[in-house]
Amino acid sequence: MENGKELRTIWLAGGCFWGVQAYFDQFDGVEETQVGYANGDDDAARTAVPSYQDVCGGSGHAETLKITYDPARLPLEKLLALYFDVIDPVSVNRQGHDAGVQYRTGIYWEEPADPEDLAVIRRVCAGVEERIGRPIAVERKTLAAFWPAEEYHQKYLDKNPGGYCHIPREKLGR
Fold first, then answer.
1. What does each C-alpha distance from 17 to 1, 27, 103, 116, 156 come to in angstroms?
2. pTM of this structure
3. N or C: the chain end with fewer CB closer than 10 Å?
């Protein structure tokens, strides 16, 4: 609980994390975001934070956004609807022009998972599959590890307004 608010955290991988961060930062109820690297191949044995070069070099990590949000103002169901509005849910290891395992899509949570949140995740994903008529390629699993990305990646599109992003500019409110 923070300042009387019951805040929650979820991790979303949606391609290049710069745009995903800029997109979610604009919504009421999003309290804090941080870009980083999640669920790499060697996280169990890792003692050092992976670098961007490690991730691009095949460490197996996904570029991921950690979102701390207020479910009273932004319910998980709505947050996930926003997520699915800016990703291609059937694309494997690719969003926009970015390709590679680090650009895969995923919804991650910490254990112990809230059963209500898991039910919402299952329901939203099933609804997307029903709507598009095929299975989605979005990973849904426990967060193995999250490593904050380098400072220059944090709020990157605020620092570099002309930077590339697979999310259309009109959806970024810019």
1. 27, 16, 8, 27, 9
2. 0.95
3. N
